[in-house]
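=== Structure Prediction Worksheet ===
Name of assembly: unnamed complex
Input type: mixed (protein and possibly other molecules)
Chain count: two
Listed entries:
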Amino acid sequence: MEWRDDCILLATRPLGEGTALIEVFSGLHGRYAGALRGGASRKMAPLLQPGAQLDATWRARLDSQLGSFTVEPLRGRAGALLSDRLALLGLGAVCALARYALPERQPYPEFYRHTLALLDRLGEPGWLHDYALWELTLLEETGYGLDLSQCAVTGATHGLAYVSPRSGRAVTPEGAGDYAARLLPLPEGLRPGGTLDAEGLRAALALSGHFLTDWLARAQDKPLPEARARLLRAIG
Amino acid sequence: MADARDEIDALIGQFARLPGLGPRSARRMVLHLLQRRDQALRPLVMALDRVAQTAQPCQRCGNIATAPICDICADPRRATGEICVVEDVADLWAMERGQAFTGRYHVLGGTLSALDAIGPDDLRIPQLLDRIASEGVREVILALGATVDGQTTAHYIAEALEDSGVTLSALAQGVPVGGELDFLDDGTIGAALRARRAF
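=== Predicted Assembly ===
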């Protein structure tokens, strides 16, 4: 078995002395783990930071085996972010959540491109808005998408202001009626190309956080990665 | 005879588990020691025994010492008002080899890591805050690795020390001595360029 593809490095940990066990997110093959000989060396350490883009080849005798990687670094991202606390936490949250949520060996080509675009934007103005959208896309890609296209009660496509915490469907204030207090606020700027103020950003992350916790984490039967909580604490 | 062989095999097994060694090099080491009992084996046994009896973490900085307080913390000449925060004892030893720092250290015992579920409570950050208050520290130098985990930890400590009144600094990142640009990764070149100074 063998494949070669562009990948995002999600995690690395030592395996023995010179080898590293790396986990990557490939556009065509999904999340894959494998051993990388020499991956724990000092020469490779700066290239194997989370978020790095690699040209990776994975090989194994059988598909069920762990397999081994050979990699060619294409682009490192961590170096540019080391002095930006929030961006660094964002990088950690993206890699940790992708590792947590994506099933192994299942391709998500569109989500891969989305993740790559987000990683390229980390630290730039407005990247947290992109991050909030990325979390909603992650939910969608893993089968827990929200329906924010129209009101679940009235069918209206404009003026959507809430999301049902149970169904994940959008609701207008008219549709919500007396139940508005029990619904999750849907920030107005939460759409591609929109803008979110600080309050809107917190509401957006609370919205995705609710469904990540209630749906995804419950299905995984383990808590969300601490890296996301650290990012949220830093945002305030 | 079989018992002696078992014991030697067990010794080889112990050596083979050490970092940088495998079964073959462990066998060579054991054979070397057995052939030089008085010159190598017995002194090694005594040295190991002494270290096993006395080695302990310094109660103040976390360095490995043979007394409750390590030589660096006990030396009044090193009370310069500067504390250098490092990830582990190996980093402290590396800094000492450089002979460029004359203050004291604080060993965190790791870095924040989402992967290994290491949070702030698992590191010696509260002890650092106590030392800053009790030792009249003026400057804290963050000498943590230029990795995602290392710098995430550095930012966390910087935030924790925000109201402490101490000056915070961090090691520079860039071209190493003897480094040629052609062989550097793009992250290091970028960091070096951003940290350029008047020449």
